[in-house]
Amino acid sequence: MADDGMLLNFELGDGPLNKQVKFKGGRWRDRLKAQRSAKHAQQNGTSSAPSRRPPTGDDDSTRPTKRQRVEDGESARHAKVPKTGDGSSWTPSHAMKTGQITSSLFTSNPAPVTAFNEQPAEETEPAKPSNAPLSEEAENFHSLGLSRRVAQHLTTKLEMKAPTAIQKNTIPQLIKEDSDAFLQAETGSGKTLAYLLPIVHRIMALSLNEDGTAKETKVHRNSGLFAIILAPTRELCKQIAVVLEKVLRCAPWLVCTTVIGGESKKSEKARIRKGVNILIATPGRLTDHLDHTKVLDVGTVRWLVLDEGDRMMEMGFEEDIRTIVGKIRADKLQKRNSEGVVLDGILPSRRVTVLCSATMKMNVQRLGEISLEDAVHITASKSEMEKDAAAGNQAAFTAPSQLKQSCIIVPAKLRLVTLVALLKSTFARRGSVMKAIIFISCADSVDFHYELLRDTEVLELPTPESSPTKAGASNHTASTVAPAAYVTSPANPRVILHKLHGSLAQPVRSSTLNAFAKCKDPAVLITTDIASRGLDVPAVDLVIEYDPAFAVPDHVHRIGRTARAGRSGKAVLFLLPGCEEGYTAILPASTPITPQLYESVLQKGLITTVNLPSGHTTPESTQKQTWTSRAEALQLHFEQRLLAPLQSSAQEDGAEETPRKSKPKGKSGSWPSKATKPKDNPLLDSARQAFRSHIRAYATHVREERVYFDITQLHLGHMAKAFGLREAPGGIGGGVSRRVHKPAAATNSASKGGQKGGKAGGMGKDDDDEVGVVDDDAARRMKEKMMMVMNASSEFNIG
């Protein structure tokens, strides 16, 4: 019987059939991404389901499937995991057991271009310190022309056996000559005493004979103002005052004082009226007193010292300095004081201006034109003076030769855990490092890292009964000094954390700096560039530039906080892979800057478990983890800390936990009441604001160095991980953060456009409720916004 039907013949081939995978559950965007990933895998002949793979490299071809978007901790717990058509669960790479899904730290990172030496460099003889005091046999203070009384006081009371090179060249010049001087030497070389000692010596000569016997007419605090010292910051003014007070203990009839911003002008006027011989001031406050304080008489002033002149010009004090120099020169120079004491012959016969700077930049030259007349250029050695003259006075000083510099090439996602690992390994041995300073670009970032790394336990402070003075100071440091977590070790179970920036009140800044300097335990100071100039804190062994300086001279001053006066020190610079790696080529260094890969830092720092803050328990499973697993667990811990109050707020208020997608909606689509609305974690808000300020600050590098710090090459999503954020928040290109709190009447009309408003202004209504939700094009939009602010550094308050 013949077939009356039609026979179709399909060629199926020899290969197996690819089963079509259908994803169910979850959001449509997640299902779409999973479908595309499975389709791509089928086209490449691989398995249809993504597999869990260990981090093997930075190749884009091995990049895992993008994780699910997580709005907050509460919705993550109830989010449905998409399922495949055969009922099996689809689990993205590196899904955590807690149900929270996070991307791996060790995938999709850019590869560094620096060639790292696998073999450790051979140990060489330690470099001879370039800023150490000279030998006692060669030089002493008395041989430089100082009186025996002053020299003996320096040797016995202050334990200074010999002068430094800059002091050797400066003190005789300022004692014998009356010409202006420009002092240029590397940081930590003793420039402060180089100009203070000649001034004190010549003022003391008004009261003492050459043999040390007293004269009939002895000057005192009411004899006149003989010297004015200007410094750019209040901290530097107070430090100069402390050094000068120690020197003046050999002449207790002489008095010095400070007039700086942030203190009572009434009390400053009272001190000036009572009498002062040497005045230390900031330019702005001194200009104010010259205009409004009639008792301030500059007719007897013989010395005007401008310390850290380049910094004063950078901070915009040029007009104030012009005013100060003009008013001092306009006042007639008095040859006798009000008591009839003859000043000429002992004090300079003209007004002497001394300008101090570690660098010779164009603004310093302009300041010299304003203040100096026929000045003598003084450096640490004659060869340097000749070299500078041949180079047209454009030479830049390098760091001290005994300072060991290194740079860590670390991707943006790993910056935070690498910093913790570096600090943990630093304090792993008792007595190896006592004090460390971490420089960060902006005040908001300083606040965030301080709150993140501090322990939750309260620091034990002295009681008012035991020490009234210390108790009063402790009130100022309640929010700036705390015990540290994460970085402690069995050898150093107690590490004290400090923070300092320009937005703090002056009493708080002074008390915090004093607490850091006098701390007997290992201590860490997280600060901005406010602490980079002139501050001399003893026992600083390590300087970490977590954010690179905005200009090379600032880098020189930062690392100058260690390796002072001949002591050894280390400086570590954090750089991102790529264009930032070329930055080390323009840094001045007496010794080569050693490059280091982040992996070695993590292996050394995370070889043991990390001590979490009080109230956080370390899981037993972490005892057997590798350093990579510990790094990922530590990053996840930071992210969960930022989200923790969002997960528990509904329970604390007695509300039922419901997923975000099933939120009960009324006409406005808002939460039923205030009691059930999740509250933002203050640490989460601090992280968002720190991220925004950091990105804005990144765009303010000097124009010549933007080839290394290119804002368009910065991965905002990866950088957000360095602040414990899972998404990059908006509102970067709008200057000040736009957190608009709308009244209740406008809630109905604004709720539907909340998401749209977030796109337009960078911050919308939903930004107060959710964890910085951005869509897929957020990174592109943020980079476009940043292009508008690259040349607008004046509007950013970097702290």
Structural summary, described in words:
With 799 residues, the chain is α/β, with parallel strands linked by helices. It folds into four domains: 16-49 and 65-101, no CATH class; 178-390, P-loop containing nucleotide triphosphate hydrolases (Rossmann fold), CATH 3.40.50; 404-605, Rossmann fold, CATH 3.40.50; 620-649 and 676-795, no CATH class. Helices cover 33% and strands 9% of the residues. It is built from 24 helices and 15 strands. The strands form two sheets. It has an eight-stranded mixed sheet. A seven-stranded parallel sheet has the order 3-4-2-5-6-1-7, with helices on both faces. α16 links the parallel β11 (496-500) and β12 (523-527). α13 crosses α18. Belongs to the DEAD box helicase family. Its main location: nucleus.
Strand content: 5-15%
CATH level-four homologous superfamily name of the largest domain: P-loop containing nucleotide triphosphate hydrolases
The main sheet orders its strands as 10-11-12-9-13-14-8-15
End-to-end gap: 96 Å
The gross shape turns out to be elongated
What is the top-level CATH class of the largest domain?
Alpha Beta
- At CATH level 2, the architecture of the largest domain is 3-Layer(aba) Sandwich
Q: Largest sheet, described in full? A: 8 strands, mixed
Tally of DSSP β-strands: 15
- CA-based gyration radius: 32 Å
Poorly predicted segments: 46-101, 118-124, 383-396, 462-471, 647-677, 735-776, 788-799
CATH fold title of the largest domain: Rossmann fold
Q: What class would the helix/strand composition place it in?
A: alpha/beta
Given the structure, what is the number of helices?
A: 24
Helix fraction by DSSP (H/I, runs of at least 4): 25-40%
- What is the typical, i.e. mean, pLDDT? 75
Count of spatially separate domains: 4
